[in-house]
Design goal:
about 280 residues, alpha/beta, three-stranded antiparallel β-sheet, 12 helices, 10 strands, about 40% helix
């Protein structure tokens, strides 16, 4: 399948999935390879025939949606962002948790893939912040739509490419090396709970009545979702974020143009602060 053929196909089908072509432009080769394999699996001749197959078999759209899921993850991705969280955001959030008489700082890592992002937070907290807030627990809910990614995250064993961005001295502290695999030690895994969940689905019940102090939604909704879905997702995220809590998106992403009730913590690093209590945004 030629690149031009795949591009045309994606431009035609992505809107049906509430996804946007602009988000897939740079990662299309990964998706195109998956689609090519699916076409061969179905014994079809090309994207035109596959498009017809989609129209005739409604359930195939779910399969195509899974083929379009992008998982690019590694520990300490965007070092400056994590450094800012460690030095500025997390200490402030921790003080706010204690000030309201709570003992748990709650975090949601959205689209966590195989766990590198939430585990990076857990490592930072245990190595650099826990001694400053000894009475405070860190609880991270890590979600992803792909059950295979959830299984990898729970296994917590990684290749070199996943851990190479971490400070080298951390490797000896936080991992047990098994041949060419780096397996995260139990004490750095305890704060993270994995759950399979698609961000496009209702998520208020993920957290019962508890709100999050920090939500990381990076390189997902505001890259791949179409504009109406981005807006809907933004307000639903805001609904489960505590006033004074932080929202982190990808450093190359933008919030929807109608984003309200939000202040800028770091524009360069795309870190924001919820200013007020959100009303009337129930997604049940």
């Amino acid at each position: 399948m030629h690149d031009e053929e795949c591009v045309q196909f994606l431009q035609n089908v992505l809107p049906r999935l509430h996804l946007r072509w602009a988000g897939f432009r740079k990662v299309r080769s990964q998706v195109c390879k998956r689609i090519q394999r699916r076409i061969k699996q179905l014994a079809l001749t090309g994207t035109a025939e596959y498009h017809n197959y989609l129209e005739q078999h409604g359930g195939e759209w779910q399969q195509l949606d899974r083929l379009c899921q992008i998982s690019i993850s590694r520990f300490y991705r965007d070092k400056q962002m994590f450094a800012f969280l460690e030095q500025t955001v997390l200490p402030v959030l921790a003080q706010r948790v204690l000030a309201r008489g709570d003992d748990c700082l709650r975090v949601w890592s959205v689209g966590a893939a195989s766990g590198e992002e939430p585990y990076t937070l857990a490592i930072i907290w245990r190595l650099h912040l826990q001694h400053r807030f000894p009475t405070l627990q860190l609880h991270i809910v890590a979600t992803d739509a792909d059950p295979n990614m959830i299984a990898r995250g729970e296994a917590a064993c990684y290749g070199y490419s996943s851990v190479k961005n971490l400070p080298e001295q951390w490797w000896r502290i936080v991992f047990d090396q098994q041949d060419t695999r780096y397996c995260l030690k139990r004490e750095y895994r305890e704060a993270v709970q994995f759950r399979q969940h698609d961000l496009r689905q209702v998520f208020a019940r993920l957290f019962s009545s508890e709100l999050n102090d920090l939500i990381l939604c990076r390189n997902l909704a505001f890259t791949y979702f179409d504009e109406p879905l981005q807006q809907q997702t933004y307000f639903r995220l805001l609904h489960v974020l505590r006033a004074g809590g932080a929202l982190v998106i990808g450093i190359h992403e933008q919030l929807p143009v109608n984003a309200t009730e939000i202040g800028v913590w770091s524009d360069r690093l795309r870190i924001f602060e919820k200013l007020t209590v959100t009303k009337g945004q129930d997604d049940d």
